[in-house]
Amino acid sequence: MIKILAACGAGVNSSHQIKDALEREMGDRGYDVKCDAVMVKDITEDMISKYDIFTPIAKTDLGFTPSIPVVDAGPILYRIAAMAKPVYDKVEETIKSNGLK
Amino acid sequence: MHAIIDIANKVFNPIINLGAAPIMLIVLTLLALLFGVKFSRALEGGIRLAIALTAIGDIINMLTSAYQKPLNDFVKSTGIHLSITDVGWAPLGTITWGSPYTLFFLVIMILLNIVMLVLNKTNTLDVDIFDIWHISFTALMAMYFGANLFVATLLILYIGALKIVNSDLMKPTFNDLLDAPDENPMTTTHLNYMMNPIIMVFDKIFDKLFPWLDKYDFDSAELNKKIGFWGSHFAIGVYLGIFIGLLSKQDVQTILTLAFTGGTCLELFSLIGSWFIAAVEPLSQGISDFATKRFQGRTFNIGLDWPFIAGRAEVWAAANVLAPIMLVEALVLPGNHIMPLGSIIAMGVTPALLVVTRGKIIRMIVIGAIEMPIFLWAGTLSAPFITSVAKNVGAFPAGVGSGTQIAEATKEGPIEQFLAYLVGKASEGQIEFIIYAALALIAYGLIFWWYAKQMKKRNAEYAAAKESN
To answer: What is the total count of domains within chain B?
Structure first.
């Protein structure tokens, strides 16, 4: 299973939209993806190391450099399919290039 | 005519008697269908909302039942009258969405956005349907204090129009804060940014009197790292439970119960908040599809929920530092009756501070501390209204004492809550309130106009800097 970490301010709205969209789209593309949604401020180096991909909404200063690939997932929130597609493609490319499964 | 009313009563009364959760299931499902959402997705949203409403009532019951007596004892033992429980944003959001009026105000806001887009008064398409509850909250509060539906609608049209204009004004600052290119469409219509004009007044004073303080700005990300889990929901619930237990002179067992109940409730409020957002999601997508279809070919700014700037460490560093400051202010502030708990990490306060100060952390903390009383007073003012709405939608425990009230210490839009109060009272015809409301609405518009001028200057500087590069 590929584990993705999404993050936003309260860990309940934007990050959940990203989580739902990624799980649905990546599932449709044939990947077994599990995405968790958390508050940005709760992310630690230890937490992020347990995931395969980090998908923040925008540039995020965590106080450390994430040890996993980062894909900007903000365009998913625009709710326009054509704008979200490059994000899904980038996640898929990351999955393939890192041999994730 | 009587026959029609009789038939309407026969059809609708049994549905109304079912209670708020079933009504909202039906109403939300029907509205989503109206915006072209598939039946199964529409029904899923309706069921999720009914479940979220039911669950939030149970958690409020758990929290208020545990804290009612200790908070009363706290008042007796300290003489400090902080008897209103701060439940944070999630119960307020859910309760507000539990009112059918919210769907009416949602439609009004969509129409306002469309009209402003057509007339080229904005370039922002607001897709943050979920946060319409803040506007609905303002309107419902005005109605609670005496306004009729028409007046409440006029009030939110006024606030809503300025809110949308503000999203355009802030757009270049967001690009700056996110280090994003001009093509980045992210902006926000969130109500918390309507504090920007007030904050800007203090920021200008800072520019004149204390610019030297900026050199003491510290590394926000480093501070957040050090605070670690102490800023998380469950930890806040635990140590505030201990704080209230100790000051209200409870025994050890009660103190521990308060601590763990507080931690449990704050965790669950967030969890249930996410159910409620999932409930509105099919409707949000339906409305976005509806609007984007009708404006094909036009490039928009997209109005999102505020957290796309949550990646800026200053938002959290300021919130963490302001938490103990808020607690102390709450204890000594005359006229405040709310005990900070669920919203002590002031997410409703710090994003606007970030935008106006552009991340100057000392300014964010100092101005945040100065403006905090406005939030606490607004929380106190809105408590009877929030408690009343919670009771109306069946989200308030029947067994809890009649004096028990809930509110949010850092609810976004405190100025708008004062406006709602004044407009509501003015609607009852009291001449002094009519004068106060008129003056307040004019002042609100004037300070926004001054703020807009400052932001336009700032945006011109951004544009000039880009040209010179």
So the answer is: 1
Q: Does B190 touch chain A (CB under 8 A)?
A: no
In chain A, which residues have pLDDT < 70? Answer: none
B257 touches chain A (CB under 8 A): no
Q: How far is A8 from chain B (nearest CA, A)?
A: 5
B214 in a domain, yes or no?
yes
Mind listing the pLDDT tens digit for each residue in B194-253? 999 999 999 999 999 988 888 888 887 777 777 777 777 788 888 888 988 898 889 999
A79/B179 touch (CB, cutoff 8 Å), yes or no: no
Q: Which helix or strand (DSSP H or E) is residue A55 part of?
A: strand A53-56
Chain B contact for A29, CB < 8 A?
A: no
Give A-chain residues touching B306 at CB under 8 angstroms. Answer: 9
Identify whether B31 is part of a domain. Answer: no
Q: How far is A62 from chain B (nearest CA, A)?
A: 6
The torsion defined by the Cα of B421, B427, B429 and B435, in degrees rounded to 10, comes to 60
Cβ atoms of A75 and A58 closer than 8 Å:
no
3-class secondary structure, B84 = strand
| Coil vs helix vs strand at B296 | coil
Report the percent of chain B where pLDDT is more than 90: 45
**Residue B420 near chain A (CB below 8 Å):** no
At residue B13, does pLDDT exceed 70? no
Furthest-apart CA atoms within chain B: distance in Å: 75
Q: What is the pLDDT of residues B250-293, one digit of tens each?
A: 999 999 999 999 889 888 877 887 787 778 788 888 887 877 77
Q: What average pLDDT does the segment B63-91 reach?
A: 83
Name the pLDDT band for B401 (thresholds 50, 70, 90).
low
> SS3 for B18?
coil
Nearest to A41 among B90, B231, B277 (CB): B231
Residue B107's closest CA among B41, B189, B36, B31?
Answer: B31
* Closest residue to A62, CB basis, from B90, B221, B351: B221
Name the residue range of residue B343's domain: 50-101+110-275+296-468
Amino acid at residue number B261: T
Domain containing residue A76: 2-97
CATH number at residue A57: 3.40.50.2300
Above 0.90 for ipTM, yes or no? no
**Structure confidence by residue, pLDDT tens digits, A54-79:** 999 888 888 888 999 999 998 898 88
> Inter-chain contact B221–A9, Cβ cutoff 8 Å?
no
Confidence (pLDDT) at B348: 86
CA distances from B183 to B179, B300, B364 (A): 12, 10, 28
In a domain? residue B28: no
Domain assignment present for residue B43? The answer is: no
Best of B124, B281, B298, B354 to mutate (most A CBs within 10 Å, chain A): B281
Cβ–Cβ below 8 Å for B305 and A7: no
Q: Does A70 touch chain B (CB under 8 A)?
A: no
